[in-house]
Amino acid sequence: MNVRLAAAGCALALLPVALPAQQPAPAPPREISILIRGVTLIDGTGAPERPNVDVLIDSGRVAAVAPGGSLTADSVIDARGLFAIPGLIDAHVHLGTDPWAERAGALRRALAGGVTSVFDLAGDARATGDLQRAVLAGQIPGPRIYYVALFGGSSFFSDPRTADASRGYAPGTAPWMLAVTDTTDFAHAVALAKGTGATGLKLYAALDSTEVTRASAEAHRQGLRVIAHATTFPAKPSDLIAAGADMLAHTPYLVWQGSPRSADWRHRASGDFLHVPADSPAIERLLASMRDRGVALNPTLWIFANELPHDSVSRVRTPWMYAVTRRANQLGVRIVAGTDDMYDPKVDSLPVLHRELELLVDSAGLTPLQAITSATANAAWAIGIADSVGTLAPGKAADLVLLGADPAVNIANTRDVRLVMQGGRVVRPR
Ligand SMILES: [Zn+2]
What we know:
Bound molecules: zinc ion
Low-confidence stretches: 1-21
Mean pLDDT: 93
Largest sheet: 9 strands, mixed
CATH class of the largest domain: Alpha Beta
Structural class: alpha/beta
CATH superfamily of the largest domain: Metal-dependent hydrolases
Order of helices and strands: HEEEEEEHEHEHEEHEHEHEHEHHHHHEEE
């Protein structure tokens, strides 16, 4: 369905045959309005489902939400028996530098599978920005793309992934993949990072508490979100919370709160899970302070449970990760869904986010509605776009998914995708 073309044809037919001279130019053709009739609405805020609702879409936005049968529009989608959720947001992807066609294909499939926005948490900003531009220009279908620039200590730039993400630059000198120390001019470094088009800063590894504090303060001053690995070696989770990070990524890294400070970021996934139990006072205090300071948790359950090697560490780490994520949610820490992957045909025919949602519910104790909020309103908050995306309410972008079965009853029903709309355009079925 091409709604815009139909609208243009319709409006042109209504123009007067001859315009008098001096008349102002006619207004551009209006997009046709679309009514989603009789749907059960899950708005993304965590509020209970609302059965039999009409959702009016106009000019790419939600114009009105009202009781079923009360609204009219140019075009009607009969959604009786269907369930509407906001477009899903994967707030931890890496679009990488694979061949362009491959990444474009993954973006197209992610969108068709209900993911209407993604947050890329480190990569080559040139490549990611090009994909962002191509999506905005309508050259490829895909989720709305937002991305970060990365800061790390100089020792981190021995990691070969950093060279891959900054070809043409000496390691640690690309504005989006920058080595910093406590003598760095952070106002300049953050301005360079922001100039890449990034909307957030990622604090990755080999950073101490002074560095993360200065970087975070300056990033916030310049209007960037601050996302951090949950420990940055030697800075601990509590240092990152004190520094004002907006979101900590990877639940397993929280374990370092209960261990002596270490500068060895290479062991980040192999903390002392046996001696720092999930219910230890150090972890309990940490989670309470995340809640009190408004710091979100980006658990990334699936990548740890399924993609990292199954070994003696993972056997302890995986249940630890589930238990700490569960406790964080119980305490009221904002949970933000992310996969650390996005779409991988070897894993699933749908975006990996559907699996992450299932783990959040089945293994970490979120209710289905909480899981949906983690991938909609909370993810939009993490990116910094909650005023326009992530919930279904008047004025918000018309990014939504219609499902054939109730995800509040069984979270696996997010897989039953019947229609995907992005910015008021139906992108599946096309
Ligand atoms: Zn990642």
